[in-house]
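Form 12-C: Joint structure prediction
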Amino acid sequence: MNPLTIIWNFLSNTYHRLGSPREFYTISLYTTPVFGFLFLVLSLFGTYFGLFVAPADYQQGDSFRILFVHVPVAWMSLFVYVVMATAGAIGLIWRMKMAFVVTICSAPIGAAFTALALLTGSIWGKPIWGTYWVWDARLTSELILLFLYFGIMAVYYAFEERKTAEKATALLSVVGVVIVPIIHYSVEWWSSLHQGPTVFAEGGPKMPPEMLLPLAFMAIGFMFFYGYALFLSMQARVLDNERKSRWVKEIVSGKTN
Amino acid sequence: MKNTLALYFQREWQLMFRNTSSMIQPLVFFIIIALLFPFSLPAEGALLQKIGGGVIWVSAVLATMLSLESMFHSDYQDGTLEQMLIHPRSLPLAMLGKALAHWTSTGLVLTLFSPILCITFNIPNEQIWVLFSGLLLGTPSLSLIGAIGAALTVTLRRGGVLIAIVILPLYIPILIFGAGMLSQSSQGLEVASQLYALAAILMLSLTLTPFAIAGALRVTIN
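Section 2 - Result
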């Protein structure tokens, strides 16, 4: 058989299996600890390299080292939104149960990443810009993103019926996608105090490899953290959503496993 | 048979003229909010002149938002909205008509009244035109985007606060461009780029939001 066909079959098979809450629950029992372990290893490496191996910045000294948390967390705040909205669109178009669960469980994680990006940014801003906060395009649009996450969470909890709540949340997250490019390009469109793109800049990264490497470790590590947190919270929600079905009753009462 | 857009637009207009308070309330609210600022700030002419444009924009956003809750409410209560949903006419076009009619009763009225507020804030004449054109291009988007939030929350008993939480983040880009125009023109700079941005947002809202409003109604009303 054509190797591409094999890969395609495997992917579509996995996709369809993940569409069923029970299959997801069984698979996630194995993948979640792996994600957690990878996050731990990568972020420990990243922290060590970032704090002890990477050289101090020639302008900012040691205070730049918060970058290894700030930048990945800020990337994640947008990445989680894109995942959340994509899952919402999949749920609305193909009526896939699990896609809604991804959307709803992503919102608090994304909000946490956004809040952390704002917090670490203002801690970094104090020694470098001399102020915790400026009303500048990048900071303001990141703050909008935080409130968008809050709005999405508020919509979910406002409805009594779960199916309606899921669809309404998915719809709002799809509508809010317009904010993501605004945040992403805000540093290029408006003249801003926030520095421009340094890693994905034209003509390659403007950063030495000793700094780039821990940043990559941290970024991939946080990606796994998202997977870990998402799967944990999805497991809980799946059990809650399907509480009337037999397999959940068996798991909760401890008859299997 | 008339086309759906015109039909719904006309229907909303008839309803509005039979109950004119729905038109007057947002305008009164708009004026009151704007006039709260001079009371709460030091009475310096230069300061008020500087912030006047931003104050008028914020008041317009809040007044539009306050009027959103009633947009679908009475239609939902008397069952008209359900009839619209099962009717074979295009729902997005119907919603476009409804949102545009909402704009004529709120955003357009506020925009037409805004020069008078500008005079009370001592805003110079050439800037009144900047504010006026910005509001004219920006407020229709406020009604169209706001209608999504109104449609999402129509079945909830206390949807008002939720509309604010959901919709205000989406309003901020419009507010930034609209109010940014004024601070640019007060420094003697060109404002064309902001006008283009507002026009682009309006075009996107006109073409995309009707589908989102229709989708939201189909989600929330079973």
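Section 3 - Comments
Residues 199 and 212 of chain A are 8 Å apart (CA to CA). The radius of gyration of chain A is 21 Å.
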